[in-house]
Each structure stands twice: as C-alpha cells, then as structure tokens.
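Hey team,

Filing this mostly as a record. A colleague (T.K.) asked me to run one chain through the structure pipeline before their review meeting, and I want the input and output archived in the tracker in case anyone asks later how it was produced. No errors, nothing strange. Just documentation.

Input sequence:
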Amino acid sequence: MVKIKKIKAKSIITKSGLPEGDFVINPYVGCMHSCKYCYARFMKRFTGHKEPWGSFVDVKINAPDLIPEDANKYKNKSITIGSVTDPYQSIERKYKITRKILEKLILLQPRLDLITKSDSVVRDIDLFKQFKNCIVALSLSVLADAIRKELEPLASSVGKRINALKELHKAGIQTALFVSPIFPEITDWKALITKTKSFVDEYWFENLNFYPSIRDEIYRFLRKNKPELILKYKEIYTKDSDYWGIEETKIKKFCKKNKISCRIYFHHKRKDK
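Output structure:
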C-alpha cells in the first residue's frame, strides 16, 4: 500500500545538479515504481518519511501555481522534468500535476528535457508539440520483461515503453532512449539500439552505481536471478577495476561507427592509459 500525501511546495524550479542542464522540476516526492536500483532514495532524509522507498509519494499540489507566467531567465535555458521522481507514475492520471506544469511552461519556452519510465507520457503529446525545443526520454535497461519486473515492479512494461517512443516519434517529438542503468553482463545496449534506432533520435547511457543505499537490493536481485554474476560484480566494483572506462570506450566507438547521437553520463574514475 502506497501512502499518498498532498503537500505545498515552496518552490518548483530549482537549479540543476545534473551533468547537463540548468534547472530541474520534480512534480512529486517519492516514486511508486519501486525500482531496486533507484539512486533517489537519498531524498528520504529530506522528507521525514520513515516508510521504505517506493511506498510513499508526496503530491506537490500547488506546483503549477509556482511556475511564473513571465520569466526571461528560463527562456532558452534547459529544464529537466523528472530527475528524482517519475513525472508520469500512475498517480499522475489522477492529479495531472505534470500536465499542468507543462501547460504553464509553454509560455516560458525553455529547452525541455523530460525523463520517464511510463507510457502514459503519450497523453501529453499535444503539449510537447507546443515547445520549440523539447526531447522526451524513456529509460530502459533490459529487453526481457521478466527481468524488468524484478528490477522495476510497478513501471511500464518494455513493450509499452517502446510503443510510447514510436508514438512520440510519429508525432514529431524528439525522442531519446535512456539506457539506464546499465547492468554489467545483463544490459545489452547494442540490442536496445538495434531494436529502437528507427524511432529514437538520441541515446543516453548511465552506468549502474553501487550506492550504499542500493547495494543490498542489487545483491538480492542477483542471488535470485543471476547468482553466477555475483563474483563478477564484486570484481567490477573495486577501486582497481576499469570496467566502466572500457565500456564507455565501446559505446563511443559503436555510436560513432553507426552514426548514432549519444550522451554518456557515466560516474567513474578512469585509469590513465
């Protein structure tokens, strides 16, 4: 049972801590998708919630009212929606906070990036069309839905996300597939590209980060589904491993060779060559 609470936010457009981007908007606090690897669990310490991550969502009920009607400071600046929550998790159907925010942002005309795991995003195609510079990204890390269910219990299925990308592309919306997180020996990013390249404009890549808050969850997942990979993961996540440096090079070479537009958001320290 997910605990839903309405709250009033003091602000809604905040400075971005992302590698690329000027500002972020998060319409909700918490997320119902219950992804095993979610880095946003750190948000709990700012909310006072004692419940497990994935079992509560605070609805920023006044969020649309906090968007200014005229603010040149956001024109041609990037605003990312969904950096620590999913703007289209299932309660969006009831509250429509994300949709109301988008309606207000049209007047400001920022460079809009939106990230989601939900096929419900297609509901707002009519609004995305009104932005001069807009890209909608759906994140996906595996093609096997059985594995997806283990990692992201309440997120949209693989097929629904792929169909959403097709619909967005057909409507003339710029699309991205956010291959995130890449699970070593599980995520086949080449297969994801091959399956979607006819309707995806950009590919974004992010590696699986072993934050202390998710480490136990990941090992539980491996013990249940891929026990043969446990030792491999322990090798990868040591300070001497350059696994992610090598993987980054592979992705860059593949994308360059196949003329694929990509952004890489890996968190790692590369060893000197």
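Quick notes for T.K.: The CA atoms of residues 34 and 54 lie 4 Å apart. The chain has ten helices and eleven strands.
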